[in-house]
TrEMBL record:
PANTHER family: INTEGRASE_RECOMBINASE PROTEIN MJ0367-RELATED, PHAGE INTEGRASE-RELATED. This is Tyr recombinase domain-containing protein. One of its GO terms (molecular function) is DNA binding. The keyword DNA-binding applies. It comes from the Bacteria. Transmembrane segments: none annotated. It comes from Enteractinococcus helveticum. SUPFAM superfamilies: DNA breaking-rejoining enzymes (SSF56349). Belongs to the 'phage' integrase family.
Length: 361
């Protein structure tokens, strides 16, 4: 292998660079897979994921969505490229070609990067390649949108609308107002609130005292079963203190039931399906706009309640406390997706620096 340049040092660098490019293809190559295209690899990868999904019985929308993103954005650009010819630079260029001139589609490009990393990790684990070129792709410049939280006015209007709907005939069987309040009281996911069980809740006999809930179950969706009682997201279990108003809600509900099993059950004794709650909220908001003239949203995203509560905890106790309450894998997840920070808020630690003023006199 040879290379020429203006100086000896430049020639050495040129030879090393050529060898680096060739060696990456050498260690990537695997016997029998020289003609494997990225499309072929994608077929193997997604077939594997869909089979795992079938065996586990999960019915999440993430996998079909990622498959569509590959078909819509990666396949037209690099689908026919040989796997052994895929370099970090080439894959990076393909991702940046997804981004529009106005900066839109950045989030799609970021998700496609994750798809490529997963595909080549699969290839490496099955000895299709010995090197994962996608691992070194720089993170696409994606910024999570500013988290939306409920304002005090929005909370007041939503609660008024939900209770107004429940108080109107006919008798309602969906306790939408209590479910909404419990999402705010715990900052739990809606699946975790619906999975709360009386056996995991401590309610004090004394008034104006906090309670405790052990969150260890969640109502999740699985193939053929829309409201299956399973583990929380990432199997994260947690014990949370309950504010007094949540204790009062639970005491009222416990007095009207056997006090066993799930806190929120339908007439058949089964967990509520989330879709039923969303439909109930839509009917409640429609009625509130007509009869009360309230400014309420068209639908009720329960996750906004979670963001609202975690933001409040972060403001009072700090970001680490909010991350613990939310059951996140890292503080970065909480800060990036859940906490709405006031960037103009005054940072006040002046009392700690006051002592330095004593020497200025």
């Amino acid at each position: 292998m040879t290379a020429t340049a203006a100086t000896k040092a430049a020639s050495v660098r040129a030879v090393r660079e050529r060898w680096h490019n060739v060696s990456k293809k050498i260690i990537t190559r695997h016997d029998g897979d020289e003609n494997l295209t990225l499309d072929d690899l994608a077929t193997k990868y997604f077939d594997h994921l869909f089979e795992v999904r079938r065996i586990k019985g999960s019915n999440t929308e993430t996998l079909p969505s990622r498959h569509k993103q590959y078909l819509n954005h990666l396949q037209p650009r690099i689908g026919h490229t040989l796997v052994i010819d895929c370099s970090t630079g080439m894959l990076n260029e393909a991702l940046h070609s997804i981004i529009e001139p106005d900066g839109s589609m950045v989030s799609v490009a970021d998700k496609c990067r994750s798809i490529l990393v997963g595909m080549f990790q699969y290839a490496a684990s099955h000895n299709i390649v010995q090197h994962n070129p996608a691992e070194n792709i720089p993170t696409v410049g994606y910024q999570a949108p500013r988290p939306q939280i409920w304002s005090d006015t929005a909370l007041h209007n939503i609660r008024l609308a939900l209770r107004h709907w429940e108080s109107n005939p006919p008798v309602k069987t969906v306790p939408i107002a209590d479910v909404f309040d419990m999402t705010l009281a715990t900052a739990c996911r809606i699946s975790e609130v619906l999975g709360m069980q009386w056996e995991d809740i401590y309610l004090p006999d004394e008034e104006h005292q906090p309670g405790i809930v052990y969150v260890q179950k969640a109502v999740v969706r699985r193939t053929g079963v829309s409201n299956y009682l399973g583990d929380p997201k990432n199997s994260k279990k947690k014990r949370l203190s309950l504010p007094v108003y949540a204790v009062n809600i639970l005491k009222r509900r416990k007095a009207d039931c056997a006090g066993k099993g799930l806190v929120f059950v339908n007439r058949k004794g089964n967990p509520y399906a989330r879709d039923n709650l969303y439909r109930a909220a839509q009917r409640a908001f429609s009625l509130a706009r007509q009869e009360l003239g309230l400014d309420v949203p068209d639908r009720l995203p329960f996750h906004t309640s979670r963001r609202t509560s975690l933001t409040e905890i972060a403001e009072v106790y700090g970001i680490e406390a909010a991350s613990q309450q939310g059951g996140h894998s890292s503080v970065r997840v909480t800060e990036r997706h859940y906490i709405q920070r006031d960037e103009m808020k005054v940072i006040d630690f002046s009392s700690a620096l006051e002592k330095f003023g004593k020497t200025a006199k």
